[in-house]
């Protein structure tokens, strides 16, 4: 019985991580498209780079779900139900977009750390390694977003 619970728990974690990545990818693309001046160039490039990294992570998570014998979420609506991050709000200010991205990245890092603990507890080295790589990516996003929020006073984030 314990093995089935662990199997289901691991699959649920990966499904949630995949759903979070889907939503975060869409959010980053929205921020990328909605960026405006005067900080346009830098923020546009940052959000574009972040979106590419998250898109790549989606494939890795989907592959891991398959390798662990679980089915992928059936559709995008199921992903929205599973995700712990929120879809991007209609754009208001650049600061609001960066703050929203930062909040969501913090949620994802927490979720991934929890997933790493589950994987480690049950000796799932493949999932642990994948999740650890994703944590490093999202922590870099978090650091960059915090830097933007803390070191860009004035109109860049108006």
Q: What is the succession of H and E elements?
A: HHHHH
Number of helices: 5
Strand content: under 5%
Largest sheet: none
| Count of β-strands | 0
Global Rg: 17 Å
Note poorly predicted spans: none
Q: What's the overall geometry? A: elongated
| Average pLDDT | 88
Q: Cα distance, first to last residue? A: 55 Å
Which range best describes the helical content: under 10%, 10-25%, 25-40%, 40-55%, 55-70% or over 70%?
over 70%
Structural class of the helices, strands and pairings? Answer: mainly alpha
What does this structure look like?
The protein has 158 residues and is mainly alpha-helical. 78% of the residues lie in helices and 0% in strands. It is built from five helices and no strands. The mean pLDDT is 88.
Short description:
By secondary structure, the chain is mostly helical. The chain has helices at 2-34, 40-67, 76-82, 94-121, 125-151. The longest helix has 33 residues, at 2-34.
Write the layout of secondary structure elements.
Blueprint: H1 2-34, H2 40-67, H3 76-82, H4 94-121, H5 125-151
Helix pairs in contact: 1-2, 1-3, 1-4, 2-5, 4-5
Keywords:
158 residues, mainly alpha, elongated
């Amino acid at each position: 019985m314990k093995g089935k619970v662990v199997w289901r728990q691991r699959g649920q974690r990966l499904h949630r991580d995949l759903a979070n990545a889907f939503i975060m990818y869409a959010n980053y693309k929205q921020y990328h498209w909605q960026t405006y001046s005067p900080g346009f160039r830098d923020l546009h490039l940052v959000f574009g780079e972040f979106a590419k990294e998250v898109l790549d992570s989606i494939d890795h998570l989907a592959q891991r779900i398959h390798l662990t014998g679980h089915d992928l979420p059936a559709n995008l609506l199921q992903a929205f139900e599973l995700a712990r991050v929120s879809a991007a709000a209609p754009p208001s200010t650049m600061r609001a977009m960066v703050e929203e991205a930062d909040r969501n990245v913090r949620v994802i890092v927490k979720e991934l750390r929890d997933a790493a603990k589950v994987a480690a507890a049950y000796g799932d080295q493949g999932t642990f390694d994948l999740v650890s790589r994703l944590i490093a990516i999202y922590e870099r996003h978090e650091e960059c977003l915090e830097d933007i929020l803390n070191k860009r006073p004035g109109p860049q984030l108006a």
